[in-house]
Amino acid sequence: MNFKVALIALGLSGALVGVAQAADNTVSKKITLTAQINDALFVSKPDGSTWYGTEELDATDYMQKKFTKTLPVRVWSTNDKFNISLAQPLKMSNGAYEMANASVNLGDKAITHGAPVAVTQTVAGVGGYDQIHNLGINVDAPTQSGAVSTNGSYTGDLVMIFEPVAAAEQ
């Protein structure tokens, strides 16, 4: 075999091995997707397709002693009643302090942890009831203790449970 041909063959085989090694350096990515179909109850933003992500509570005045947020929530249900409760108490913390007197309301109904509250829908929709309710969230700023400032970002999760009420339970 000619020296030049052998050198070219050796170079090509090295390139092929490099390509094979590059193919072994792939990156695998995973996204978990979920979808839920419920023919008795559907809860969303007013647009009927999305839900809230992160929402910022607004100070009621310049003193920043009370914070609030009102979010419209659309509930479609086959029956005129559904139950709502908190899966856990609403707690907002910055690590050193916790917001006080947290309250959650759906319309004029106070929503608490572990105690389902019946809500009656009055607006008829296609195949059931379709109504927008105002979800109200209110918290008080913590009181400073010692030299530790109350300044900072407070976070917490509002986890609610919406349950359809069977016609026999009404």
Features:
globular, Immunoglobulin-like, three-stranded antiparallel beta sheet, 170 residues, 1 helix, mainly beta, 10 strands, seven-stranded antiparallel beta sheet
Overview of this protein structure:
The chain has 170 residues and is mainly beta. It has a single domain, classed as Immunoglobulin-like. The protein contains one helix and ten strands. A hairpin with a 2-residue loop joins β5 (100-106) and β6. The protein is globular, with a radius of gyration of 28 Å. The protein starts with a helix and ends in a 6-residue tail after the last strand.
For this structure, the CATH topology is Immunoglobulin-like
Gross geometry: globular
Radius of gyration, in angstroms, nearest whole number: 28 Å
* CATH architecture type: Sandwich
**Helix/strand structural class:** mainly beta
Average pLDDT over all residues? 85
Total DSSP E strands: 10
Question: How many domains would you count in the coordinates?
Answer: 1
User: What level of helicity do the residues show?
Assistant: 10-25%
